[in-house]
Structure formats: C-alpha cells, structure tokens
Design brief:
Blueprint (H helix, E strand, L loop, with lengths): L1 H5 L14 H11 L3 H14 L4 H14 L3 H19 L11 E2 L3 H11 L2 E9 L4 E9 L6 E5 L1 H11 L1
Parallel strand pairs: 1-4
Antiparallel strand pairs: 2-3, 3-4
Length: about 160
C-alpha cells in the first residue's frame, strides 16, 4: 500500500517526477560515471520519493558496481521487487478492467522491460478509460502481445495541477 498511498502525499509529482531537475541530475551523474556523487544524489532522491522504481533499480546497480556491498544492494533490490510485486498484484494487464495500476508512466517500462523482458515495443496509446495500451512483439515472461496499465492516478494528478 505504500506505493499507492505515496501518490497522495505532498511530495508526489505525478509522472512529471522523472522530468524534475533533481532526477535529471541523478541520471546525468550516472551517465558521467560519477558514482560517489550519484550515490549521494540517489540517496537524497529516495528520501523524498522512496517508491520510484527507476531510482531504486539504478541505486542497486550502482552499489553493486561501486562496492559490491551485498547487504546494501539487497536492500534496494528487495524494495524494488516488493514494489514490482505490488504492481503486478493489482491486475494481469490483459484488459482495461484488469490493467496493472501504476502511479508513474516510467513504472510501466520497469514492469515491461525488467520483469517481463519485452521485445520490440510497437505502439503505445491512451484508451478512453485512462489506461495506456502498449503493444509489442513478445515478452519472455508474459503471454500476449499487448498490456494495459491503469495510469489514472498520474493523469488525475496532472489534471488537478493544471486547474
């Protein structure tokens, strides 16, 4: 429930989060291989947003590359896995009614690419029911060639913000 309830806290920025300056700086530090600075920036990001999957994933990889500190890496990967499990427990992704519920657009790609190992995304479209429909050639761990994600929380947040 932490994942979904986070979207009702003052820190939630909807799917604009990954466009924030802090997050962009974090990703820039990763690309520049400034690992110590990246570690500090990632730690600060997770204090403000403990449920953003991409940050958790990157921090787990960073700790592994930097120090191979198994305990610290395990803490990131356990949190990441718990959040992915929460998302996949919210539905099966096969229809709009059983769509996986996410609070960030970016989390769709975590589920598709890191969990189900999607190959060749073909198309993405928004349905009338506030779902993203993503079509692809195949996934290694998912039957079918399309998946629905309920993105209503992020869209509702954006709508409230723009009022």
């Amino acid at each position: 429930m932490i994942y979904y309830k986070y979207s009702f806290t003052p820190n939630y920025q909807g799917s604009m989060y990954d466009m924030s300056q802090e997050y962009q700086n974090f990703m820039k530090l990763i690309n520049e291989k400034k690992y110590e600075e990246t570690n500090n920036a990632g730690t600060e990001l997770l204090k403000k947003n403990p449920v953003f999957l991409q940050t958790l994933y990157e921090m787990g990889a960073l700790v592994y590359m930097q120090s191979k500190d198994q305990e610290k890496m395990r803490s990131y990967t356990k949190r990441y896995a718990a959040l992915i499990t929460t998302i996949t427990a919210s539905g099966d992704g096969k229809t709009e009614d059983t769509a996986f519920k996410v609070i960030y657009f970016n989390d769709e790609y975590q589920v598709l690419n890191k969990l189900f190992l999607m190959e060749n995304m073909k198309q993405q479209s928004l349905t009338d029911n506030k779902c993203d429909l993503i079509e692809f050639d195949k996934c290694k761990y998912y039957e079918g060639t399309q998946m629905y994600f309920d993105i209503s929380r992020s869209l509702d947040f954006m709508h409230e913000l723009l009022k």
